[in-house]
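Journal club prep — side note

Before the paper discussion, L.F. wants everyone to see what a predicted structure for a comparable chain looks like in token form. Sequence:
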Amino acid sequence: MAAKKISFLELHWEKLLTGVGGAVLVGVLVWELVLSGTTVKVGSEALSIGDFEDKLAKQEQAIERKINADLPADLAIPQRKSVSSAVEFAAQRDAELIAGDLPRNRPWFGSMLTGLAGDRNIWFYEPKFMAPKPGRVLVTRDAFDAAAIAKEDLQEFEKSSPKFVERFLKSESADVTWATPTATVSMKGLWEELQKESTSDRPPRERIKMPWTNGSDEGGLVIVDVLFERRQRKPDGSWGNPMPVTPVVGALSYRSDMASTEIPPGSLRDSLTKDLADIGAQMDILQPPLLPMKGGYFIEPSPLSGAAGAPVVDPVVAARQRDERKIAAARDQLDRTAKQLEDKGGRLDPPPPGSKDGTGGGTAPPKEKGGGGPPGMGGGGGSMKKEKRDADGQAANSAVRIALTKKLDREKASLKKLEEAFALAYPEEKFAAKKEAPPEPPLRDRGDVVVWTHDFDVQDGATYQYRATVVVFNPFFTRQDVLVKEQQSLDRGAGIASAVSGWGPEVTIGDSTEFFLTRGSARDGVGGRRVTVELFRYIDGVVRTTSEDVVVGDPVGKNAAGKSGGGDFRTQYYLADIFDDGADGLVAVFESRSATGQAAIEIRTLADKDSEQYRALRDLSTAASPKKVAAREPK
């Protein structure tokens, strides 16, 4: 019997069934995933797979912005716009691009600037700056010239330093005695410290990134403050607590800004690095200028000494430039006085002796004709009052014009002396090749620079010492988020203070009035035991002098204010004794007790008249001195 042949279907039915089932399954999947649009329920929303991925990406960005508050919004490419005129184009071009406070540095932005690429495992060298070297202290007497200060500047000073303005710029007397402490700072040494690294440390400390030091790719040295401190000797000989010297009014200072909690760190950082990139601004921090002075007696210390490899300013050229600045300041002051005189009506010389008014005439103005009746009744009373007011106003204006004329003449004479001295010191044929000074080198290329401040809070008779600290811009300021955790505290503060210098030499502020023994007698006689002293004082920017007889027990100096060429010549001293020692001749003993409680004894001899200080004051004093006044007032 022959075997039954198996059909194809019977032979492959399992495979066919599996294939059909697989095709059905694929169709179902295609239907669900592609054709029907499978959704994912998120909250109350049903999202497709694509929408779900977009939502996840947006949520991730939102969370990242909360973590990094300064992260900018998504970049939106602006649509192309057209402008109708050049004026509109200029307005849009110059419009502010950033509104609000500048941000602190963040990893996402700081990494692009520094090349850290978000890697916060780098340790940086922490600079430690050497202390300045304390120098001498200058003491100067002069008077502020409030009229030479712009009205807008004076209003600003009233807001920032009201006590100073009230004391010196709005008081009856603008006379002031101040101390100028100095110190020497090695700029090259500060810059070298900023460039150091320490590979032997564990972990190694890398050099600070150059853009951090002042915001530029090549880096640079930025000094944000020079802090001087003062201490005063007590009556028992001990020293009081150090007190910071107030920044000079009118000079550039960021001390209050750096101490403020209201200024955003990013704005402060950019303000410091941008403003102090100018060498002129840097020198104002190191060597603050004075407000306009009437006498111009302050002499700047030598500002710069060269260092190896650095451009050096020729000392002759530097001295010439200082003298040129003095002459320029004197000319500016002369121009201001001339303008004031012109506004008041022009030059008016003092009247000759015997005249009755300020115009040089000796006759009174003629009276207006009219009856003798009372005012308002045809008698001319109202007209007479008007004449009197006009005459009073003319007299007051004449007095102002005469005073300004005298001042103008003094300033012309002073300028002539400066110009004559300049011509003798710098003859053109000898110094013609040295007129042009080389450009000022940046701070980082300089050697020792003399820095100073002006201390207007000193008291006559007090003894002081000063010390100094230099404050360098902190390269880690606002960079906390790109520092390792252990160094993030370096971010605090816009400046890094150097070590504090030692205390400088002692300086005692002398009395505003200086006096010298000129003659006298230690014997009892007709005139009694008395001496004659000559007194000098800076009054309104001019050295004035007077002389008086003093007997034992009398104070030295009187208040001669209100008299022609007079002033307040009072001192803290009184005459304690007179004797003849045979060697130096006449010897006078003066005792005093200052406002600070310190007692002092001054021994004066007739040799005072031969001292350099006496001759210098005599040369500076006005030609017309008040006559000698008696020591005792008549009974």
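L.F.'s comment for the group: Confidence is low (pLDDT under 50) at residues 106-118, 304-313, 358-380, 623-635. Keep this in mind when we get to the figures.
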